[in-house]
Design goal:
Layout (H helix, E strand, L loop, with lengths): L2 H14 L37 H23 L9 H6 L6 H18 L10 H11 L2 H14 L4 E7 L5 E7 L14 E7 L6 H4 L3 H8 L5 H9 L2
Antiparallel strand pairs: 1-2, 1-3
The structure holds manganese (III) ion (MN3).
Length: 233
């Protein structure tokens, strides 16, 4: 897909998804959790083939992600959590139910995940590239560290590139649907890039070969989005 078309699609999804002030801002939502809407996918189900197959994409988005969204909205309905900014909700997630933690994370993490992938070739901004060089040594070393976290994570969860409060970038992994915004995280910060390593994210196409799925991820990372998220930290 051409960049112009991608941006046009983004514009369409914005109109339908008022919860995010712009497509790059899902790492910093500003609206009330109870006003969340299910985001449109910014590309077709088959757009990321051969790296992510259409059937996996459709099930993952329309069943898994939609399920987390529906259960999250149901879990916060008529509770104080519905009036909170999602970022603040996550910052105090230890005070919430497991239903809010698991489904709120599931809703939010997948929203970030779809955005940080694209069929179009993109490049990290000079600013992000400089930060990656500074914190990891090089882009290749960063990919090794992130890939290793994704491959070695035991069980269901996510791998993350995170900007910490001091601005330093680091790699982490999280269990289940936890994320680096949550107060239960050992290392907290703003998520810039995430990769879903639950088996539902790759098993139909890759079976047990998670490493191959992780290595292929680099072909479809949307560096424009990751760079914008870094700009907004
Ligand atoms: Mn998933």
């Amino acid at each position: 897909m051409k960049r112009r078309n991608f941006l046009a699609l983004v514009g369409t999804s914005l109109a339908a998804a008022p919860v995010w002030s712009n497509v790059y801002s899902t790492s910093l939502p500003t609206k009330k959790a109870g006003e969340s809407v299910f985001p449109e996918l910014p590309y077709a189900y088959n757009a990321l083939e051969p790296y992510i197959d259409a059937q996996t994409m459709e099930l993952h988005y329309s069943k898994h992600h939609k399920g987390y969204f529906n259960n999250f909205i149901a879990a916060i309905k008529d509770t104080p959590a519905a009036g909170m900014d999602i970022k603040d909700l996550f910052a105090g997630i230890s005070k919430q139910s497991m239903a809010v933690r698991n489904n709120g994370g599931g809703f939010y993490n997948h929203s970030l995940f779809w955005e940080n992938m694209t069929p179009t070739k993109t490049n990290a901004s000079a600013k992000l590239k400089a930060a990656i060089d500074k914190n990891f040594g090089s882009m290749e070393k960063f990919k090794e560290e992130f890939g290793s976290a994704a491959k070695k994570h035991f069980g269901s969860g996510w791998a993350w590139l995170v900007a910490g409060k001091d601005g330093a970038l680091f790699v982490s992994d999280s269990l289940n649907q936890d994320n680096p915004l949550m107060d239960i995280s050992q290392k907290r910060g703003t998520p810039l890039l995430c990769l879903d390593v639950w088996e539902h994210a790759y098993y139909l196409h890759y079976q047990n070969r998670r490493a191959e799925y992780v290595d292929n991820f680099w072909n479809i990372v949307n560096w424009d989005v990751v760079s914008k998220r870094y700009d907004n930290v």
